[in-house]
């Protein structure tokens, strides 16, 4: 008789966890409070975590405490794929991640990871804070059934490596960890590397044990993840300017009261503006921080990379016209 009882208790416990997420609780004055769980894989103290915290504080202030955002950083609720999948059943209500992670739901999201598409940070901002960027976020959201808000620059992606890389030829055969996203894998395969998908939470150990020899991410995330301990080289490829957004399930967000939706959107944009400015202002400082950890910073010959990637976008015909529109923005 014990086994059925124990099993029943476990099922009740699991059910309680799932339905409890995002439910309304009651504050000390007896008013109902909407609790949102916000997940992200970045460590506590990383600018992404900081942006999530600023978002949470702004939401509480703008809603007069009607909405409480609980931030779970460091992948404590799962990796990015698991938490995004958890939006629909309500296991989490918000995920702070790159647009590119939504590629499994809509091919349009792959625009986030097209290599060497932007001229600089100013070009990036003109795209994503202009009409084209707004339309893109709406289209990606509609196709994937998500609500996207708070577009923010998460920083250009740099390579941290155990091997010295000065030209694209040095990438030949390099075992590099990439997100399990088609366009990232294709980029490094075309450059001659061995693209190795791996959950972000496993990257440090993978580098430490030699499963992979390199990884690529924004400076802030690579630093807060202590990759300087296992990678003696930082390569200034800046091959992708990636965009983070606050991701909600579209139906869930649509069912929130209008005043709450407006407050949440405003808070997302404020947190995003803060992070974009912070990332741009701190880039040189983070490079110096890597150097202070005895990491050798290398300025590679970017022309050798772009030459190998010539015609790359032809493998993604659905993005070709969009890339041309982005590159045409002055």
Which terms summarize this structure?
eleven-stranded mixed β-sheet; 12 helices; globular; 330 residues; D-Maltodextrin-Binding Protein, domain 2; single chain; alpha/beta; 11 strands; disordered N terminus
Description of the molecule:
This protein is an alpha/beta fold. It has a single domain (19-319), classed as Bacterial extracellular solute-binding protein, family 7 (D-Maltodextrin-Binding Protein, domain 2, 3-Layer(aba) Sandwich), CATH 3.40.190. The chain contains twelve helices and eleven strands. The chain has helices at residues 2-20, 47-62, 80-85, 121-128, 131-144, 182-190, 203-209, 219-224, 250-254, 258-292, 302-308, 317-328, and strands at 24-26, 32-39, 67-72, 94-98, 146-161, 175-178, 194-197, 214-218, 233-235, 241-249, 296-298. Strands 1, 2, 3, 4, 5, 6, 7, 8, 9, 10 and 11 form an eleven-stranded mixed beta sheet that branches. The model is unreliable at 1-21 and 26-30 (pLDDT under 50).
Q: Percent of residues in beta strands?
A: 15-25%
Low-confidence stretches: 1-21, 26-30
**What is the number of helices?**
12
Name the CATH superfamily assignment: Bacterial extracellular solute-binding protein, family 7
List the secondary-structure elements in sequence, H or E.
HEEHEHEHHEEHEHEHEEHHEHH
Describe the main β-sheet briefly.
11 strands, mixed
What is the average of the pLDDT values?
Answer: 91
Q: What is the straight-line distance between the termini?
A: 72 Å
**Any idea how many domains?**
1
Which architecture would the CATH scheme give at its second level? 3-Layer(aba) Sandwich
Give me the secondary-structure category: alpha/beta
Percent in helix: 40-55%
DSSP, total strands: 11
Radius of gyration: 21 Å
Shape verdict: globular
């Amino acid at each position: 008789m014990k086994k059925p009882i124990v099993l029943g208790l476990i099922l009740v416990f699991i059910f309680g966890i799932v339905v409890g997420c995002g439910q309304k609780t009651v504050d000390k004055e007896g008013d109902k409070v909407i609790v949102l769980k916000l997940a992200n894989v970045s460590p506590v103290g990383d600018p992404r975590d900081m942006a999530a915290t600023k978002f949470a504080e702004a939401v509480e202030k703008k809603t007069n405490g009607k909405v409480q955002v609980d931030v779970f950083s460091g992948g404590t609720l799962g990796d990015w794929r698991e938490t995004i999948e958890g939006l629909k059943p309500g296991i989490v209500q918000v995920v702070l991640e790159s647009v590119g992670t939504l590629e499994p739901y809509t091919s349009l999201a792959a625009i986030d990871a097209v290599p060497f598409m932007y001229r600089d940070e100013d070009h990036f901002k003109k795209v994503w804070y202009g009409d084209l960027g707004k339309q893109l976020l709406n289209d990606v959201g509609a196709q994937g059934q998500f609500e996207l808000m708070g577009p923010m620059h998460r920083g250009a992606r740099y390579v941290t490596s155990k091997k010295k890389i000065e030209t694209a030829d040095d990438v030949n055969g390099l075992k590099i960890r990439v997100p399990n996203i088609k366009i990232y894998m294709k980029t490094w395969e075309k450059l001659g590397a061995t693209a190795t998908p791996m959950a972000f939470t496993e990257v440090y150990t993978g580098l430490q044990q030699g499963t992979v020899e390199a990884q690529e991410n924004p400076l802030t995330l690579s630093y807060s993840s202590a990759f300087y301990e296992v990678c003696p080289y930082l390569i200034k490829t800046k091959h992708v300017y990636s965009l983070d957004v606050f991701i909600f399930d579209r139906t869930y967000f649509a069912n929130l009261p209008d005043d709450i939706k407006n407050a949440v959107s405003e808070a997302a944009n404020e947190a995003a503006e803060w992070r974009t400015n912070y990332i741009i202002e701190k880039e040189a400082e983070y490079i110096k921080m890597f150097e202070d950890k005895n990491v050798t910073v290398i300025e590679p010959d970017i022309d050798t990379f772009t030459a190998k990637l010539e015609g790359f976008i032809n493998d993604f015909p659905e993005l070709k016209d969009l890339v041309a529109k982005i590159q045409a923005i002055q």
